[in-house]
Structure formats: structure tokens, C-alpha cells
Amino acid sequence: MAAKKATESFSKSLIEEVHKWGCMKQTGVSLRYMMEFGSKPTERNLLISGQFLHKELPIRIARRAIELESLPYGLSEKPAVLKVRDWYLDSFRDLRAFPDIKDTNDEKEFTKMIKAIKVRHNNVVPMMALGVQQLKKGMDPKIVYEDLDAIHQFLDRFYMSRIGIRMLIGQHVELHNPNPPPHCVGYIHTKMSPVEVAQNASEDARAICLREYGSAPEINIYGDLGFTFPYVPTHLHLMVFELVKNSLRAVQERYMDSDRVAPPIRIIVAEGIEDVTIKVSDEGGGIPRSGLPKIFTYLYSTAKNPLDEYTDLGTADTVITMAGYGYGLPISRLYARYFGGDLQIISMEGYGTDAYLHLSRLGDSQEPLP
To answer: Is the sign of the CA dihedral 274, 175, 60, 7 positive or negative?
Structure first.
């Protein structure tokens, strides 16, 4: 019944158009291309970029809207998932209703609209998490979460695609900034210092640890502060923040009632020819080997859950920390993979965990397009 209700507000012709656009081929771009193209944000380049997004975004959004209709285990019918689907259909309709972009005025109006689309989708991740939770509540507890592989794979595709959509919109919008910070091309910092970003992310994670526990382990960072390479600082901040926060929590909980001083967390930044690798090492007791496959699933978290049926996710300013709904690691891995990197976790049960975050230094890998 709920599913039917959601479709009633969308015409049959719109749904048909979604299916038509969802079959079209997506076009990926590389970090290097975004950087080179955006380094000269002339009116002509912004016009070309706007025209590209006017065709590309409906294809990407249509694909996700179609997938949201046919999820396994009845996930598509959950109220939170229906709401997400409505956001995608609204955005598709807005994009398709916008006339062809012929001049700078059209492009400026288009930029306003895609900025609003980005805001509309701000809470997609917690809303989908709520949908998965609504599903888990009604499910037979005997179902093994590994069996929910289809849902996990869908969420990987869905969130990876969302990272791409938000990167493309954010990049285009930011190119309009009349006073960009030095060395910034849209979202990309051409001379980003990974050590500096790691310092900032660590301080933020440590502040949360102090707030929650009243104390926090030290964090030692090793690497050349002067080393820079082109990357998206917000992406790196999100990933390092997540890894450090997990390590802080593990060490803090292990040493909370101990007389011994909690050992520091070590962050090592290494520059290779192909990759920049950031290793986050802790002595928080590690993860049993049987638990390792679970850490990258969306259906598992050791933290207490801040999401519940009563969370009002309709408001754009809902602030939810990643700690609670266990999405930090799988989503961080997607951010790493988006620009050709990866995230690996190696654990020694009884001792601690090492997280290896690999970032591609070359910047020429194409976006993964699920």
C-alpha cells in the first residue's frame, strides 16, 4: 500500500521517463580532468559543465530511483526508503523540467537548482540507515547478515553513486566561488598536505572522545608536513576522522578501568610513486578474525544506535555523528575507492588494529560508475 501511495504523486509518464533515462550510459570523469577543466572557470567552461550535468545527472539519478523500486526483502516498501525514492524522483523531475542551457543566465539558474537538489539529498544516508533498521526490526533474527549480501551490494552501489553525484554538483557550484581559497579548484586542493588534514581530523575525533569519555588517548602523527598532492580535503578528512574515532574508542574502552596509561594512536603518512598511504595504528585490543568481514557491512555496529523511528530526518540540519549507525567504515572505503584508492583493515586480536588508507596519487582513474 505504502509503495503505491508514493507513486501516486508521480505521473505515469514521469516514471516511464525515469526508466528511459536509467538505461542511458553514464559518463565518468577523473580527478585530474576535474582539476584541469576547473582551473579556468571561464563563463564558457561553466556553460559546458552545466550542459554536461544537465544530461548526466538525470541518468545517474534515474538509475538509483529504479533500483530503489526493487530491493530485496521488502526494503523498498519501508517508509524511510519510500521517502528517499521520492527525493530522487523529485530531483529527476526538476532536472528534466529545466530547459536546455543556452547562455550564462540559464547556467546560473541551473546552478541554483542543482544546489537545492544537493541540499534535498543531505540526509539520504541516515534515512536509508533508518530504512534498513525498519527492515531489521521486522526480520527473523535467525537470518544471518551475511545472507543479506544483496542489500549490502545495493547500498555500496547506491552510496558510491551518491558520492559521485555530490562531487559533480559540489564541484560545479564551487567553481562559481569568486574568491576561491589558494590552490583550490572547486572541491579539489591542488597542494593538499595529507599530514595537515590528518592533524585536523584527529583533533576533531579526539574532541568527540573527550566529550564522550572525559579523556582521550594521545595521537602521534609521523610524516612530512611539507608533502602535498592534489586531492579532495573533505573526503580525506571524513576518512581519517572515522578511522581515528574508531581507534580512540577501542583504546579508551580497553584502558578505561586500567591503571596503565592508554597507549597513543599512531598515524603514519607515507608517499609512494603511485599511492599516498595513511596508516592508523592502535592498541585497542583488535577485532577477532571472525568479526572482520562484518566491519564493512551496513547491518552491523558495535556502537549504541542514535537512529530511531522518532528521529526527524526531514530537516536538513539534523546532525548525526557517524558513530552510531555503523556506516563509517564501509562509506570511508567507498570514498577511498571513488578516486582509485582503497581501505584495508588488518587486526591482531588481543593487541590492536591497523587501518591502511591508500589514496591514488596519480588522479587519473575514472570514477567507478555503479
So the answer is: positive
CA separation for the pair 300, 323 (Å, rounded) = 12
Cα–Cα–Cα angle for 120, 158, 107, rounded to 5 degrees: 45
The Cα 46–Cα 48 span in angstroms is 5
> Checking DSSP bridges between strand 265-271 and strand 219-222, what pairing results, if any?
parallel
Counting beta carbons within 10 angstroms of the beta carbon of residue 117, is it exposed (0 to 12), middle (13 to 18) or buried (19 or more)? buried
Residues 6+ apart with CB under 8 A from 208: 245, 248, 321, 323
Task: Give the integer Cα–Cα distance in Å for 366 and 225.
Answer: 28
% helix, strand, coil for the chain, step of 5: 55, 15, 30
- Residues with Cβ < 8 Å from 36, sequence gap 6 or more? none
Please give the single-letter amino acid code of residue 21: W
Q: What is the pTM of this model?
A: 0.90
Phi, psi at residue 62, to the nearest 5°? Answer: -60, -40
Cβ atoms of 252 and 262 closer than 8 Å:
yes
Tally of CB atoms within 10 A around 67: 18
Contact in structure between 338 and 234 (CB atoms under 8 Å): no
The CB density around residue 91, as the number of other CB atoms within 10 Å, is: 24
Q: What is the mean pLDDT of each run of 10 residues along the chain (370 residues)?
A: 53 94 95 92 95 98 95 91 96 97 97 97 92 82 67 93 96 95 95 98 95 94 97 97 96 93 97 96 96 84 50 43 68 96 97 98 86
DSSP 362: S
CA separation, residue 273 to residues 52, 58, 270, 300, 341 (Å): 33, 37, 10, 36, 13
Q: Report the C-alpha gap between 47 and 43 in whole angstroms.
A: 6
Q: Phi-psi category of 164—alpha, beta or left, where left has phi over 0 and alpha has psi -120 to 50?
A: alpha
Q: Specify the length of the chain in residues.
A: 370
Nearest to 33 by CA among 370, 369, 363: 363
Distance CA 132, CA 75 (A): 7
Q: Grid coordinates representing 137?
A: 526490526
